[in-house]
Amino acid sequence: QVQLAESGGGLVQPGASLRLSCVASERTTAAMAWFRQAPGYEREFLGAIKWSGGKLSDPGRFFIFADNAKNTVYLQMNALKPEDTAVYYCAAGATLISRPEAYLFWGQGTQVTVSS
Fold first, then answer.
1. How many CB atoms lie within 10 A of CB 80?
2. In sequence order, what are the beta bridge partners of 88?
């Protein structure tokens, strides 16, 4: 059972940057991913990365990277917009994939609110 703990969320103004962290209790699963979910919307894939290298993500305002020594995956978010407001989750799974149902373990989530 992999335990995941997200942190770094909060209230920020439009245009700001924010970095979320996800600490894994162990690196027994190959891949880590970030998702977000806003009220009334489905869970949205933001990116995934393998501890051994390799990444699945879209170029843009969000950037995922890992620090293996700290068992930590980060989500760097830039130029935040009000529509980025959501609960952000990290997840652990066996492969790089965008479907949330493929991930075995989930954190509790961290709220990000973008508002002036």
1. 21
2. 36, 110
Tokens encoding 90: 């990290």
Contacts of residue 33, defined as CB under 8 A and 6 or more positions apart, other chains included, come to 45, 46, 47, 48, 49, 90, 91, 92, 93, 96, 98, 103
Please answer whether residues 33 and 91 qualify as being in contact, where contact means their C-beta atoms are separated by less than 8 angstroms: yes
Single-letter amino acid, residue 24: A
Q: Is 69 helix (H, G, I), strand (E, B) or coil?
A: helix
How confident is the prediction along the chain (116 residues), in pLDDT tens digits per residue? Answer: 899 999 999 999 999 999 999 999 988 889 999 999 999 999 999 999 999 989 998 778 999 999 999 999 999 999 999 999 999 999 999 999 999 999 999 999 999 999 99
**Gap between the Cα atoms of 48 and 112, Å rounded:** 19
